[in-house]
């Protein structure tokens, strides 16, 4: 076999190899599904806050809904947890309960979106049950809320509860005209905070 034949053979093999590689890449993309565009920016907040909580000695667990790509439906499917469960729960060194919702930096107001109404109920209920519950977009905010809350505990549980209610994200005016309201049954101690503005109950969205 001459040199020309060898070169042609080698060229053919390279072409076949490239074709096979392209086909393999295509099959991998089809199996993996399209790349998700929403890559959970709140994960940055979560990582910073977990570092702080561990330094404080808190025992916490992160709860996360799993999302998988369905080949049949050709879209991402949410394998959700029970509606309303916040991102992080646990206990402090003294046994007090913790419930924290993480948001991406600058996105605290999304707590009031209508689709998050059960999340709102969950956090408010935890506050009414004397847990340390809050919504944060940074470790700095978590530390600030925790320190102020500790100071208010000196004045009693009701004072601490009231502070956590005040520390919830401010509700944007665009979320005032919503159709549904948190279930009053999920707010057992709501009568204890009647001295606070309850505008956020007018129809929050998550």
Q: What's this, in brief?
A:
The chain is built from five helices and six strands; from the N terminus they run ααβββββαβαα.
Q: Can you tell me about this structure?
A:
There is one protein chain. The chain is 40% helix and 14% strand. With 206 residues, it is of the alpha+beta class. Strand 2 and strand 3 form a beta hairpin. The longest helix has 30 residues, at 3-32. The protein starts with a helix and ends in a 39-residue tail after the last helix. Mean pLDDT is 77; it is low at 184-206.
Class inferred from helices and paired strands: alpha+beta
Secondary structure tally: strands: 6
Strand order of the largest sheet: 1-4-5-6
Number of structurally distinct domains? 2
- The geometry reads as elongated
* Share of helical residues: 25-40%
Describe the sheet with the most strands: 4 strands, mixed
Average pLDDT reading = 77
Entry keywords:
four-stranded mixed sheet, alpha+beta, 6 strands, disordered C terminus, 14% strand, 2 domains
SSE layout and pairing:
Blueprint: H1 3-32, H2 42-55, E1 59-62, E2 66-70, E3 75-79, E4 88-91, E5 97-102, H3 117-128, E6 132-136, H4 139-153, H5 157-167
Parallel strand pairs: 5-6
Antiparallel strand pairs: 1-4, 2-3, 4-5
Helix pairs in contact: 2-4, 4-5
